[in-house]
Specification:
Blueprint (H helix, E strand, L loop, with lengths): L2 H35 L9 H10 L6 E6 L3 E6 L7 H6 L5 E5 L2 E5 L4 H12 L18 H13 L3 H19 L7 H15 L1 H13 L3 H11 L4 H4 L7 E3 L7 E3 L2 E2 L2 E2 L12 H20 L5 H42 L1 H18 L6 H10 L6 H4 L2 H14 L3 H15 L4 H11 L1 H19 L24 H23 L12 H6 L1 H10 L4 E4 L4 E4 L7 H4 L5 E7 L3 E3 L4 E6 L5 E6 L4 E5 L12 E3 L6 E2 L4 E5 L1 H6 L6 E5 L8 E3 L4 E2 L4 E5 L1
Antiparallel strand pairs: 1-2, 2-4, 3-4, 5-6, 7-8, 9-22, 10-11, 10-21, 11-19, 12-18, 13-14, 13-17, 14-15, 15-19, 16-18, 20-22
Helix pairs in contact: 1-20, 2-4, 5-8, 5-18, 6-7, 6-17, 6-18, 8-9, 8-11, 9-11, 9-12, 11-12, 12-13, 13-19, 16-17, 16-18, 16-20, 17-18, 18-19, 19-20
């Protein structure tokens, strides 16, 4: 190797050492912050509060039904006279008590879901959750809806997903050190790390069942059918019965049929896939709901799942799966055509689209082609995709440095480690994709480095590992430049992922601020408060007549117990964003929405009084929870006449729920206001 190459590798090695040093500094700082804050970051224990609430509503035997809304536990009691209202109203942790609509409402605040779960536990009762509406009524941007769906399905497993990714990294290290794949330690640890990814459809079946309101065990049965161990072998043979769409990109050999209907089974099987099981559970939920309406209660417990499985599983194999398979084949044909046209354009397109293809499971259209290519010699089909994981790693470092949320910081550390070993699911589904722009920046990084690798005709020598362990796959005898170009792509992806993410705002995902940032800004916050400086001006999210909060027909809002603010009697059935921010809360019935503004205010917009009882009728959401919104963007639509005809006031409070952050709220509007007019200021 010549001197210039040695210098280049030395620089890369030096950069790696510095990166490692920075990362461990961040990790050490995060641990110090956690130790310093003690239990402040831990989930609060509401056991004593829950016990007190249950005891003073008359005990568990007095509870016939329990649901919760945005801020309240809504009890249906056998005998309201048994409830000790005076005690509960004075009890710490309870804002107030309201009796309305045949319900005994214990107002808790924004953390009501946690208190609700604890009440169920200590009382030993089953609740009915929040008041649900059909998720299908949610309108809005298809991309937003997809992100919200996927992020929500992966959210419960992010910690475990990151841990599994780290174990896969450990296994890769063992392999690099020469541990045989047949060694017991390798086998066991590989199962621990890879098992979750292999059988991901089963986990997604559970989370999708919860999202689509389906029996979880029935959903699991659908997932088990898709990944059944011997099913792939059952659908292959030496010679197909016949071939569908011969000579086209979606040519499909048929090895088996279902009562004469062709079964199109993907060569890659349904292991490790995402969309097929989600689509199957969604369809199963619709089928289950239909049969629940017509099957007698006496046999519903087994007849409903019987018909659900009987219809859904064949549907998954005959329709849902083939559609995914055909889409994957078309992707393979498309990218092959692009490469034949121009390799550099191919590198740009594949580098930009790879992570999206993986999310949809469409990358399988390229993987078999790459394997066939590498069997004949060095290949280029997947080269543009190999180093993209380092763009995620760079973006995560930036997010870790700039986020105001301790939870995001904690999730970023294991996600970063996983990304170094090529496992990017925790980073994508848990952090960058929900944040939107950081994910887009990593796609741009992939496009630029993909063009670079294609321009220099970098070839993969063998199908190797992922992340750092993909490096040996680019060692070419007699040509050190292949490896150097790939190492440059790794560094470039990291730098671009970090640098491009620096250009965008890092939104809050969980609505919280880290203790570190809070402490650092404490003095400046006190200074601003003491000076009475205006921190934020909030514009009107509705058109109508301004009403003082104390004049609203609800004692909780009127008392200011939920926070300071103002109310509007709307003249137009639309709610728009009063400021740039992130939707932190969208109640399933779409009657209330919570917005965390970019300037730090947390706003609750509650359309009407007790409108939760309408169960979503007359309300339409145009955003989803987690959406990043701009000032003036349409959030909700509602039918004023329908709400009034149902007997509910339409008076809409706009409440600042984190007034402790501010000194005061000053209402600046009176009389009639239009959308976007100045409403109040916070200082």
């Amino acid at each position: 190797m010549n001197t210039n190459n040695e210098l280049g590798l030395g620089s890369i090695f030096s950069f790696g050492i510095r990166l490692g040093f920075f990362f461990f500094q961040e990790l050490e700082q995060a641990l110090r912050d956690q130790n310093r804050t003690g239990g402040s970051q831990m989930a609060k224990d509401y056991t004593e509060l829950a016990k007190d609430i249950v005891a003073h509503v008359g005990g568990k035997d007095n509870i016939t039904k329990l649901v919760h809304c945005v801020t309240r536990l809504r009890f249906s009691l056998k005998d309201e006279s048994k409830a000790d209202t005076d005690y509960l109203m004075k009890r710490d942790g309870v804002v107030t008590v309201v009796k309305a609509g045949g319900q005994y409402q214990v107002v808790i605040g924004n953390h009501v879901p946690d208190v609700y779960e604890t009440v169920l536990k200590v009382a030993g009762i089953s609740g009915e959750g929040s008041v649900d509406a059909d998720d299908d009524v949610v309108e809005g941007n298809l991309f937003d809806r997809f992100i919200a769906l996927v992020s929500g399905l992966f959210q419960p497993m992010l910690g475990t997903l990151s841990a599994a990714g780290m174990i896969k990294g450990v296994v890769a290290i063992l392999a690099a050190l020469g541990v045989a794949k047949t060694d017991g330690a390798y086998v066991v640890l590989n199962a621990a790390g890879d098992g979750l990814f292999q059988f991901l459809p089963l986990i997604l079946a559970i989370t999708a069942a919860k999202r689509f309101k389906m029996n979880q065990f029935t959903a699991l049965a659908i997932g088990f059918a898709l990944v059944y161990p011997n099913i792939a072998a059952s659908f292959t043979a030496e010679k197909p019965l016949y071939t569908l769409f011969a000579g086209t990109p979606i040519e499909s050999p048929i090895f088996s049929t279902f009562f004469g209907l062709p079964i199109i089974f993907p060569a890659s099987s349904y292991l490790s896939t995402v969309l097929p099981v989600i689509a199957a559970v969604w369809a199963g939920a619709k089928i289950e709901k239909g049969f629940k309406k017509i099957i007698p209660d006496v046999v519903k417990v087994f007849i409903v799942p019987f018909f659900t499985l009987l219809i859904t599983v064949p549907l998954a194999f005959l329709v849902i799966g083939p559609v995914m398979s055909w889409a994957s084949d078309l992707v393979g044909a498309l990218f092959t055509g692009i490469y034949d046209f121009n390799p550099v354009i191919y590198g740009i397109v594949l580098g930009a689209a790879w992570q999206v293809l993986v999310m949809f499971g469409l990358h399988w259209g390229l993987v078999p082609l790459a394997i066939l290519e590498l069997q004949k010699g060095p290949g280029v089909i997947l080269v543009a995709s190999i180093a993209i994981c380092f763009a995620q790693a760079g973006a995560l470092i930036n997010i870790m440095m700039r986020t105001k949320e301790e939870k995001v910081r904690q999730l970023s550390i294991p996600a970063f480690i996983s990304a170094l070993f090529g496992v990017t699911e925790p980073a994508i589904y848990g952090i960058t994709l929900p944040m939107r722009l950081p994910f887009i920046m990593t796609c741009i990084s992939g496009a630029l480095t993909g063009a670079y690798l294609a321009f220099f005709d970098v070839k993969m020598q063998v199908m190797g590992g992922m992340g750092l362990f993909a490096i040996p796959s680019f060692i070419e005898a007699g040509n050190s430049m292949t490896l150097i170009h790939f190492l440059i792509a790794i560094v470039a992806n990291f730098v671009l992922g970090f640098g491009l993410t620096q250009l965008v705002k890092i939104p809050n995902l969980f609505g919280g601020q880290s203790e570190k940032n809070a402490d650092e800004s404490l003095d400046s916050e006190k200074e601003r408060v003491s000076e009475g400086a205006v921190e934020q001006v909030v514009t009107s999210p509705l058109a109508g007549e301004v009403i003082a909060l104390e004049d609203t027909p609800d004692a909780v809002f009127a008392s200011g117990a939920m926070g300071k603010g103002v109310a509007i009697e709307p003249s137009v059935g639309e709610v728009v964003a009063p400021a740039d921010g992130v939707i932190r809360l969208l109640f399933p019935t779409n009657h209330a929405i919570g917005l965390a503004t970019d300037d730090g205010a947390e706003l609750l917009i509650h359309v009407g009084m007790d409108t939760v009882a309408l169960d979503g009728k007359g309300f339409t959401a145009h955003v989803v929870q987690g959406s990043k919104v701009k000032k003036g963007q349409l959030l909700l639509s509602f039918d004023i006449d329908a709400i009034k005809e149902a007997g509910y006031p339409v008076t809409t409070p706009i409440i600042v729920t984190n007034m402790s952050r501010f000194r005061d709220l000053k209402v600046l509007a009176e009389g009639e206001v239009d959308l976007g007019d100045t409403l109040f200021e916070l200082n």
